[in-house]
Amino acid sequence: MEEFEHTLFIVELFNKIFSPPLVFLLNLIGIKVTNPEKLIPAHVVMSIIVMLFLIIFFGLASRKLKILPTPLQSILEVLVEAFENLLVDIIGEEGKKYLPLIGTLGLFIFFSNILGLIPGFMSPTSNLNVPIGCAVVAFFYYHWQGIKTHGLFGYFKQFAGPIPWLAPLLIPIELISHFSRPLSLSLRLFGNIFGEELLILIIASLFPFILPLPFMTLAIFTGLVQAFVFVVLTTVYIGGAVASEH
User: Fold this and answer.
1) How far is CA 216 from CA 127, 191, 229, in A?
2) Which of 46, 99, 170, 208 could join 161 via S-S bond, C-beta 3.0 to 4.6 A?
3) pLDDT in tens, 6-22
4) What is d(CA 25, CA 48) in angstroms, rounded to the nearest whole number?
């Protein structure tokens, strides 16, 4: 799969433009680059493309908002309201303050999932590094919110449970549970998107043009579902971290 990723024209072009200055900077600090033509991997390039698209599109779309919304503004308002309703349903009214992270994760993962449907591109989430990165961000974020809400000692005290003599049993269980969360988040997302892209690639190579279309349509729905599951679980983790009782 890595060999296929690096045949993408946009990845080769990106490396031709940005690899020389990066190689120069790395050499200055004593890091030798053995393969400068493939310095920037495909999933990094695709992630940058998704981020630039989100920044430019939503930055332009959110300018000059009107009292009587345009069709695009109406869609954006529905999108924001959907994220807010999810946060309120799981966490409560105070959950709205977590909208920036939840909205960013949801949009980034969804557009990353469906980017591979465009010829010449790949889904960055089909590379395990990207789902792991998203999961690690969620992991540290919800712990940080728990510490901000309860204090360092108060937050980790909840890992011991309400019954002191059960603490030696509950603390290892809680630790295993928390450290397994980024693993399950990343593997679930990676497995579904990687398998989906591989299936479409195989079918397109055997029966091009017509037959892959139903699978590509299904892939849009699957990409939405996977982004939704990731966002819901992250919201649940945040809610558990900031709740007064576990």
Assistant:
1) 19, 17, 20
2) 170
3) 468 899 999 999 988 99
4) 20
Mark whether 33 and 50 lie in a shared domain: no
**Same domain for 14 and 95?**
no
Give yes or no: residues 23 and 130 share one domain: no
For the chain, the domain total comes to: 2
pLDDT at residue 1, rounded to an integer? 47
Residues 131 and 78 in one domain: yes
Scanning the structure block, which residue is given the tokens 């599951």?
A: 229
Same domain, 18 and 58: no
135 and 17 in a common domain: no
Q: Determine the pLDDT at residue 51.
A: 97
* Residue 168 belongs to domain spanning: 43-242
Query: Among all chains, which residue has been given the structure tokens 């892959």?
Result: 212
Does residue 68 share a domain with residue 32?
no
pTM, two decimals, is: 0.90
Long-range pairs of 240-245 with CB within 8 A, sequence gap ≥ 24:
240/142, 241/142, 241/143, 241/145, 241/146, 241/149, 241/155, 242/91, 242/94, 242/145, 242/146, 242/149, 242/150, 245/158
